[in-house]
Amino acid sequence: MTTEIIIQAMVTGLMMGLIYALIAAGLSLIFGLMEIVNFAHGEHLMLSMFSSFWLWSLFGLDPLFSIPITILLLAFCGIITHYFLIRYILKAKMLIQICATFGLSIFIRSIAQLLWTPDFRNVDKPLLEGRIEIGSVFIGQPQLYASLVCLLAFFGLYWFVTKTETGLALQATAQDRHAAEILGIPSNKMFAIGWAIGLGCVGVAGGMMANYFFIFTDVGINFALFAFVAVALGGFGSIIGCLYAGIIIGLVESLGGLLIDPSFKLLYVFAIYLLVVIYKPQGLFGRY
Amino acid sequence: MDSKLAIAKSEPIWNTNVRVISIIAGLIILLFALPLFGMNSFYLHLFIMIFMHAVMAQSWNVIAGFSGQISLGHGAFFGIGAYATSFFYMEYGVTPWISIFFGMLVSAIFAVLIGIPMLRLSGHYFAIATLLIGISFQVVFQRWDLVGAASGLWVTMTPEDSWSALQFHSSKAPYYYVFLIFFLITFFLVWLLSRSKLGYRLRAVRDDPQAALSLCINVSNYKIIAYVISAIIMAPMGSLFAQYILIIDPDRVFNIEISIIVLLITVLGGIGNVWGPIIGAAILVPISEYSRIYLGGTGGAVDLIFYGLILMIICIFKPNGLISFVPKDILERKKQR
Lengths: 288, 337
Fold this sequence. Notes:
The relative contact order of chain A is 0.21. Chain A is built from eleven helices and two strands; from the N terminus they run H-H-H-H-E-E-H-H-H-H-H-H-H. By secondary structure, chain A is an all-alpha fold.
């Protein structure tokens, strides 16, 4: 075991972690806003990867250029989700909320399996290809750019939520729905915006990952699990916490895989999750 | 106050609603008589599946409906039961009738081990942790050589039908009776549980943990008790299922679909209600079996589409499940005031 291999694993983990962070940020935003965990988050990620794939395979659009379309599609998907499902369960018991989004996840995944079959697909010859070599560490170009774009999108999101007027309105709604309504912030519209942005983040991550990741109908499950863990780790509702949590998870996953056994990656992340939620239930950066 | 307490104590535990008791007794006799009318093996299989799923859903109902903790990885106990029974049967020749109890014991131990750290969590934290638990078990069993890793266990077949090995190759009717008896026993016990002191305490924990705590109910202990009971109900179904299909592998008995369907059956039928799982299973299992027959080849996920859709519709329009269509006076015992 040389130092280079460990550095290599850390770089890989870091790049993966930035992607987890963005996916988790979308989840965290939605949770912070209306205290609903989107159990269909992985399926939305899968949809965004497929959107990228179909735009490439039907119209020859490179995943890099189709990202705006993917984001718009996913944002639209988020608004639909809010309008047809979430709107009705806002006041329901938590159990019903979990079951509803869980049902949505089953629904999307099985529809996708019916329409597109569970085959593995990938985008042939995307613009981003090859790798760069720094010292003895190899970095895949698509992975590198994906993580950079995700980081950028993450800071964009952070800027949006903390600096713009709509973002502040979102925060106000998150803090106290009724008080915000008294001040003339329509909470229903804010929820729709929250869903659009939350899934838009997933659109960015999925669109960039379509460059190098296999695309299949169950792809979202692992990412969603890691995103749940990241959200719990960073503290439910905290966006900046997701960044650190995502990076921690990426590092644990790749270093654990390297040092112990790659087939139990999920278990290491799970162990981290249990440790954090038991000893620090509010997460590392949580506001609750 | 004292007189009311005396009335409550003098009330028989049996439902005084004679009509309901006679309906239930009639149904039980009918269920016992059904195979005598010469049902073909498909219908026997259908009923076996309904009984099995009703019990599995009841198990989920105990943890989620009574004590309010949503477990999204309940299939783990099904798999543990299946593996424990088959393993002891194959390695040591223990008859399944006894190794079913091993299965229950092992899952109870696992439930305690999992429950002690995890039931300190609540709500979303617990749901996510159980989702991870369910998948972790599948990952571990896929790579555990002692129990056949990914190819699973092939239960040793006896040459002939045998009650001691719980294997029947010529007819499904004995399986039908075994599952029916387990189904009746489970429902009777859970019904007793639901109206026992323990049942009320569990519901207190679900409805308001703070208030329950103030009444000296140890919230996390009761959650663990509910989790263990739920695991003990789930495990024998795994054991019997293993004896029924005679081959178990991690992808089948630890499948996340099991965790999904127990949730779905309970939510559809009526969560927190003893009778909910029966209604849910009687509706969903035929849908699943028939859609497998008629639509089976087309990607295999058609029944799951229905499940997802039904689950969302139920959550939006009937959060209390189909049981809320049944008039209340049938379900409740006669008021003695």
